[in-house]
Task: inverse folding
């Protein structure tokens, strides 16, 4: 079953196909970035000539309403709503390049975590 991602602010769907599309912002520039929709798969799709700098913090923004997707749980986490069938959850993911940490949360309870750096923010999710 496929995953559908939406902005928690405007509720607009940000994966019209098999790629989650957001705007990434850093002090020097902004660009569209694509993420693989499967939680725990950290494949990213970048425009030609753009490279992520490991360890750099990026701000992620909804491409539809331009809302900042920073999570209230931690400044290094961004958030999206995620749907799989009728299951509604919140996805939190690290906005530090090269840091593989993502979490699926339901009613403020951690259901799943993924990535080799998942321990980094787990204590912020209780």
Result:
């Amino acid at each position: 079953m496929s995953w559908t991602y939406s902005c928690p602010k405007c509720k607009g769907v940000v994966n019209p196909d098999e790629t989650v599309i957001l705007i990434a912002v850093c002090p020097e520039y902004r660009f569209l970035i694509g993420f693989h929709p499967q939680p725990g798969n950290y494949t990213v799709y970048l425009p030609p000539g753009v490279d992520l700098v490991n360890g750099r913090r990026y701000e992620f923004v909804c491409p539809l309403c331009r809302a900042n997707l920073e999570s209230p749980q931690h400044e290094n986490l961004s958030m999206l709503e995620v749907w799989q069938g009728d299951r509604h959850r919140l996805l939190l993911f690290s906005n530090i390049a090269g840091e593989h940490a993502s979490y699926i949360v339901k009613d403020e309870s951690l259901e799943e975590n993924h990535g080799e750096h998942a321990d980094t923010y787990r204590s912020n999710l209780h």
